[in-house]
Amino acid sequence: LKALHISGSTWAAAAGSSFAGGAQASQLQVLVQSANAAQLQSASQKVTAIIERQRGVTQVQNDLSTREPLVSVQIDPVKAAAYGLTPGQIMGELSPYLTNNQITSIPQGGTRLPVYLRVGREGPQGIAAIRSVAISSALGSVPLSSLATVRLTTTPASITRTNGNSTATVSGVITSANVGAVSAAVQKAISNAHLPSDVTISMSGVTQMQGQAFSQMGEAMLAAIFLVYLVMLLAFGEGRSPFAIMFSLPLAVIGALGGSSSRATS
């Protein structure tokens, strides 16, 4: 990769990861959900710090860390009423400055193209200019700053919602060969973090895939045992002998688990 000589780029290779299909096979993902935006932000930061301290995890990212500027306009209903205005009327006059409104559509090649109305380059530039936007009222024009509090703030670049609750995704790449141990350590550390009661934590990524794989393997084993018992029942013609043979299965499972532990296989 370094042979490409791309200026300003940094390359990192993590053991145990794969780029097949555009996703990393050893990616750890923790979903943090809450209806309270402040608690979601705080909890996601704590989870991020926990994962960053965990050995064997690199490239930790929090999708709430990427923020974009946002103009906040908080209208004072009392001040608006003094000028004979309602918050809805004020936002209606501000709408061309904040959004592109579709006013009509024109035919083009069998389809219709939408036409939007928006403020050109001569529109207000900067927070001070927005505060000075003139709002028409029964008493004449009045600057927006006399009716509302206008400030520049930031907001997450993207917000995901699950069942109506905002969700933050904290992700990282597991570089350790023992993926299961790292995932278990992260889950234990998050459980001991004493997050607020209305914050929900769920594991995704490789941890979720491992859980699903083990669940499906267990179901397959139970189905296989039942089918083997049916075959032996038909072969022996009675139920006692198949049970005697099936009793050796626990010993086989113990031997398999013991062999896996001795080879440190996860």
From TrEMBL:
This is Acriflavin resistance plasma membrane protein. The lineage of its organism: unclassified sequences, metagenomes, ecological metagenomes. GO terms for cellular component: plasma membrane. GO terms for molecular function: xenobiotic transmembrane transporter activity. Keywords: Membrane, Transmembrane, Transmembrane helix. SUPFAM superfamilies: Multidrug efflux transporter AcrB TolC docking domain, DN and DC subdomains (SSF82714), Multidrug efflux transporter AcrB transmembrane domain (SSF82866). The keyword Lipid biosynthesis does not apply. The chain crosses the membrane at residues 220-237, 243-260.
